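Q: What does the assembly look like in three dimensions?
Context provided by user:
Components: two
Sequences:
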Amino acid sequence: MQLRNMVRAFVQSDVDPQALQFNRQKFNRQLFRKCGELGLLGVTAQEQHGGSGMDAAAAVIVHEELAASDPAFCLSYLAHSMLFVNNLAQNGSEAQRARFLPAACSGDAVCGMGMSEPGSGTDVLGMSTTAVAAPGDSGSGSGSGGGGYVLNGSKMWITNGTVDGRDTGDAFLVYARTGRGPRDISTFIVERGMAGFSLGTKVEDKCGMRASMTAELVFEDVRVPRENLVGEEGGALLSMVKNLEIERLALGAISLGIARRCIDIMNKYSMERVAFGKPISSYGQVQRHIAESYAEYMAGRAYTYSIAANLDLTTHGCGLDTDAVKLYTATMGKNVADRAMQVLGGNGYVGDYQVERLWRDAKLMEIGGGTLEAHHKNIVRDLRRLQVLP
Amino acid sequence: MRVLVAVKRVVDYAVKVRVRPDKTAVELQNVKMSMNPFCENAMEEAVRLKEAKLATEIVAVSVGPKQAQETLRTALAMGADRGVHIVTDMRADQELQPLAVAKLLRTVVDEVKPDLVLMGKQAIDGDNCQTGPMLAGLLGWPQATFAAKLEVADSKKEVTVERETDTGTQKLQMGLPAVVTADLRLNAPRYATLPNIMKAKKKPIATRDAAAAGVDLAPRNKVTNVTDPPPRAAGAVVESVDDLVAKLKADGLV
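A: Here is the predicted structure of the complete assembly.
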């Protein structure tokens, strides 16, 4: 509660005023640093590495509150704080945490994660980026990479892939193939400035989430030292699954934030706007938009927080429900934003009332961090195993 | 130097208050409650004194229902070292009145022995502006209200307070111990950081029952009726400044 109040107050004074302006511009670096000062960037990271040592529920609260004002900024926050910071905090070695987390938690570094590729998204095991043991190494032929690895390939749709539009972000967790088997995938920390690591296509002209920078990352014979291998070689799948769970909850929380804001806006507007001599909130058609939105928002909220309360960041096991949370909340958020625009009519279609921006942002949750179809696939796969619901 | 900061739980400043249907009070059910904004200024100032190594310990005190503990946790997250909670279910906006609160706070002062008491100049629910002065009166301590600037001498024996009045800035110098009440201009309160919110959970809060404090809590004023303010009448648009002046004169307003 205290966390929510603090973040909400911060959002009202510092995040909200910049949201529309940066929607037309770019990533707000200064605001990002302020989040670092408040301890938001390392919300789930260990305290000794500059984090705040909080749990999944806290992370969900922060996402909902930030997204109620600026979903795009929140998306960049998610890529940094969940996909990089939390991922490394849970899966990295003590030395890796000590090396990368302090700067990431303070906001000095803007980081992200690379999983999708130009040719593989939902089909994540179809990735083709490779990491092979560097030539001349003392490592064995199986590629133990004693002296490092050489990365080749590219990653697409990378949030925080660039910050300024010229260079890459500061550090990324990159998944790459280290063997022939479909599950031979390893995680590497790739740092800005490594030879051969460069910014590819900048993703411009996105429908929404415009204050969040998206780009392609390109790896051409990038020499990655062995100490940048996260976990065991070939051990990426487990950490990937672990981190996908919190990622989906956090994305669900963005939809919650969007929905809550849209309900606030259409509720207020419907009381003020008069048509045929009465406030439009007295008409059944408008009442239906508002009432259904509220009920769906609360259903999504209850689901999200109940799963968050039981999500242990150090392991996995909530896959089915984190998929289902995001499946439900993503479409809920989009529908609520759509109803808000309908209630506001012409005023909803232009930027001044925020709804237009939230409406565009809301769609992303049906695509990013797992498409709806990926969630369908995963949910049915898990339900097949379950057969009978507990 | 030990600083005691009094913090009050009130209806959040952004909430549009509603009168209860029975007209006895404003509605508090399902209404967002927060720390009184002026108390945040008092708390912030105390933390700054501690950061400047002038204060060694900050004790936060709150009088109110069990949920006032959340307000104390906020104070602890901002930087107080420990809390004192005086529990009462009396409505803090009209039933529990300034004199009773001042007397309760005096018992805390007797126990904590602060060198400086910082409070908000008023709470935004009752808007009485009385508790600070009454506490100073009961203690026989010097007081400065509406503080816009506070300086503690290196000797830690006296303070200089600037207070903004309608006629200008007044500067007061007084010996410690003293009571100082904060205005909004005193500082910009910080947000509690996440690590500090976590630490605050482990800081101690001592709980006392207000009824057992040996203090007369009976209200001195009785609220007979609470009503909404009259709705604002529609305004009129005038063509020019001259028209405005003429109209104000015609209405006898200037």
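Follow-up: Chain A touches chain B at residues 1-3, 5-6, 9-10, 37-40, 43, 47, 52-54, 58 (CB under 8 Å).
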